[in-house]
Design a protein that fits this description.
- The complex is a heterodimer.
- Chain A is α/β, with parallel strands linked by helices.
- Chain A is built from twelve helices and 24 strands.
- In chain A, the strands form three sheets. In chain A, strands 5, 6, 8, 9, 11, 12, 14, 16, 17, 19, 21 and 23 form a twelve-stranded mixed sheet that branches. Chain A has a ten-stranded mixed sheet with strand order 4-3-7-10-13-15-18-20-22-24. A two-stranded antiparallel sheet of chain A has the order 1-2.
- By secondary structure, chain B is α/β, with parallel strands linked by helices.
- Chain B has one domain: 3-Layer(aba) Sandwich (Rossmann fold), CATH 3.40.50.
- In chain B, strand 9 and strand 10 form a beta hairpin.
- In chain B, helix 6 runs parallel beside helix 7.
- Classes of the chains: A alpha/beta, B alpha/beta.
- At the A-B interface, helix 10 and helix 11 of A face helix 2 and helix 3 of B.
- The structure holds adenosine-5'-triphosphate and magnesium ion (MG).
- Adenosine-5'-triphosphate binds next to helix 1 of chain B.
Chain lengths: 493, 259
Amino acid sequence: MNDRNQDQALRKQLEEDSYKWGFETNIEMDYAPKGLSESIIRLISQKKQEPEWMLEWRLKAYRLWKTMTPPMWGKVRHPVIDFQDLHYYAAPKKNTAPKSLDEVDPELLRTYEKLGIPLKERAILAGVEVDENRPPVAIDAVFDSVSVATTFKKTLADAGVIFCPISQAIRQYPEMIQKYLGSVVSQGDNFYAALNSAVFTDGSFVYVPKGVKCPMELSTYFRINARNTGQFERTLIIADDRATVSYLEGCTAPQRDENQLHAAVVELIALEDAFIKYSTVQNWYPGDKNGKGGIYNFVTKRGACRGARSHISWTQVETGSAITWKYPSCVLQGEESVGEFYSVAVTNGYQQADTGTKMIHIGRNSRSTILAKTISAGKSDSTYRGLVRVLPKANGARNFTECDSLLIGNRCGAHTVPYIESKNSSAKVEHEATTSKISDEQLFFCQQRGLSKEAAIGLIVNGFCKDVLKELPMEFAVEAQQLLQVTLEGSVG
Amino acid sequence: MNNLLEIKDLHASVIEDSLENNQKEILKGINLNIPKGEIHVIMGPNGSGKSTLSYVLSGHPNYCVTQGSAIFKGKDLLSMTPDQRAAAGLFLAFQTPVELPGVNNVNFLRTSLNSIRVARGESELNAVDFLKLVREKAKTLSFSMDMLKRNVNVGFSGGEKKRNEVLQMSLLQPSFAILDETDSGLDIDALRIVAEGVNSLRSPDFSALIITHHQRLLDYIKPNYIHVLAKGRIIYTGGAELSNQLESEGYGRLLEEAL
Ligand SMILES: Nc1ncnc2c1ncn2[C@@H]1O[C@H](COP(=O)(O)OP(=O)(O)OP(=O)(O)O)[C@@H](O)[C@H]1O
Ligand SMILES: [Mg+2]
């Protein structure tokens, strides 16, 4: 009995500790009034000093959005969201377009420090603590609606790579924005994409010129801090002919009782022989143990393999959010283009995830691979939803899909919903699915060999996900492994 | 007092949703002392509760102790979690070893050894030192490198699984090992190798409880005592020679006398 009391105390502690990113930063904020209207959009556009065409683009999206309703087909449940009860713009007051890191509010830098992403440029400039073996990572950090710092600008500029806040790109590279923004996810694509197109406030822009291999990993760190705000970032990545780039996105948010909305749009464009690798480690606040609070993560991510032999690879590790609704997809237009989707989605407590991918085969001999690992624990519910569509001209198209679910405990659920539509008889589409459960016998065996229950689950889960985790850049793979373990702490009694 | 393990009047039930009132008593008052350095053998008919005893001693959550005590190295064994018992030096070689899909054997062995080393206050072994150690142990047990690289017990033959248990035992160097029918399903050479694995651990600080149906194993491992377990109780205890008698007579006479 004593044992059981101890166990409970420990579990309580774990619950309280488990979201260590839940702190709040006290910074003076500049808010737009709550609610959404044409005048709010004009305000955002003006704050961002945008050209007239951008405002028009946003207004068009807004008008489309007003005619749309939230999608209902996902296997997620949540109360109706009052879109007029949100702030659509919130920015740290002091931070009006920092020219260099020194102009960034020190409080903000401390926040990033706490999150474990020291803006490494500082150290490098000061000549300290540079690990020669670790490849440098350029980071763009987005704090609520504003991008606060982009590191390594110069190294990237020397290589001809553009990596900057999208708000800056709109002013500086209008031709490119006009050509590519919305070319993969149009303003009216879906309810949340339309909303994002109308109100997005920041995000990253990447352009890698012809023949250039981006000299470092690019990374964006998103953080929602302010109350009652939505975060609507917009990312646009273009890899020109024969260009290569690897991009990583990480996210956290403070612990709050109310739900917060995150509705991002990410567009990737790969031209001839280009390669884009996009990795996400999503760790938004999932809500407390009773299912209160947490982020609603409604995201549209899509890549277009426009050129022949172009290649886009999505890797995601989704551990956070109260609700995750996202389907990173590939439109395989180019001949012999390649799309990949590697996913680990973990849910615990009352979390809900409906995630998967779409692979649209248009080009001849286009190929796609889907490897989705779903882990459910506690009272959570997780769905893999995937579409493989082969259009009539996609001769020789091939897809291989594998979906594996792992259940921990008896009160969670995992579902696999594959849709296959093939209009070309020469195409080959394969689908495999498995469901397994971590058994008491496995846990006991590991414990008998000295592992704690937590470590045993971690070991089995990592074994289950390793084929996906190995797709992540090295240093993030380690972080992701730890995150998986933290997420599943206290998942068995 | 020189007893490593003292079991007094131990009663235990299996917890099963399918059972009426959820419980069924299986161990009905076990008394057993195992002094340091001794090897004891338990024999007995199928279903008599041998595996149950090994599970109860190692803390399997499906069994609950309803009465009695077990003191291990002077401490209350029954209040410890399974991993605490492992750290205290108790090892169980499972009658049916469990498969861990996706978990690499070497990785598992290393995590296991390091957990136990840390619990004992020793430092973790780095990958290089560990590999050296595991290669050496694997060699003496004729355990192939290929099996080390595979996932824990996945696709192993029955005998290979048993050998993997012995490999784990020789890596972890427990002070008390329970071997639950580790000799079943082994070919003649493997049986000798497994026996050597146990004998190599023999020291004044190592004790073992060996559960077996066959006298064969006892040709290689000389026990101090043999106990006969039937219907949840130890009904008879004898010396090493008892196995010969059981081999020729069966349990019939002992069972009758016990009634
Ligand atoms: N999980 C369980 N559910 C129901 N009955 C169980 C369970 N575990 C054990 N038992 C019963 O308890 C009794 C003792 O089983 P146990 O496995 O301990 O026997 P054993 O002596 O090891 O037998 P064997 O020599 O066949 O290995 C058996 O009647 C068995 O059916
Ligand atoms: Mg048995």
